[in-house]
Design goal:
The chain is an alpha/beta fold. The chain has helices at 13-16, 52-56, 226-232, 234-242, 254-264, and strands spanning 35-36, 60-64, 79-80, 100-108, 115-129, 135-148, 162-169, 172-176, 196-200, 210-213, 222-225. It has one domain (33-178, 189-264). 13% of the residues lie in helices and 27% in strands. The strands form 3 sheets. A 6-stranded mixed beta sheet has the order 8-7-6-5-4-11. Helix 3 packs across helix 4. The radius of gyration is 17 Å and the shape is globular.
Length: 269
Amino acid sequence: MTSFNTGARSRIASLAFSSLVAIGMPIGDAHAGQQIPHSSVRPIVGTQYSSASERRWQPLLTLNRACHPYPAVDSWGNWSGGLNPSGGIDSGCSDGSKGQIYVRGHWLGTPGSGKCAVMYSWYFPKDQGGWGGVLGHRHDWEAVILWINAGGCTPTGSTGSLYAVSYSQHGHWVTRYGARGAANYSNGVSSGGHVKVVYQTGFLGAGTHAMGPTDQQGGMQALVDYGFLWQYKPDAARALSSVNWGAANFPLKDSNFYRALGEARPSGF
């Protein structure tokens, strides 16, 4: 496993154009908010909560027999109560107007130059799968990691290229590369350079949901950078990192984030 500098609790400076922002600091465990119905959680919206580079690489999400993504927390630190896996697979979670996507990046090498990894993550109120919906659990967190070559980690990300993509799949990471002999990952990438991903169950609906590649053109959700939340919406950030999400785990908190990078990092990158 590749060793990452887990002592650096700062975001990618040039991705966010901010001063170094501490992430996951022990500011206190007391919640400012409370648990509320998932449909009452308002997304955090605004380009001030993400960088141009993060928006440049934001994936396009397609859903296949699944809940829509919802915000996990709101600006005041209230968090989603999720949904019990019952009824139809998307029963109670089919509102596509409240989508939220969370992002966090990390330099691989000297900050400000070289390669980087950027993780994008979605929250779903329930993960219900299997034949007849007999499998599943309340709350689901899924993510993809984009491994970006030098130039793609600059403020606009306009000169870089995508090396590989890692998809969260049932507690593990599956990494896909470009076609044989290709220097960059181009499978399922839109004309605008956005990776196309799908949230779906296994073959014939068996099992619970996971992320994977697709050729279908999906959509985008309101983007929020985890580091910006600590800086501007600390109650929301604190709730994300400290709420018990049951069988799911928030992937952007320090312990999960750095472990995921170590497990998923492509060979030779």
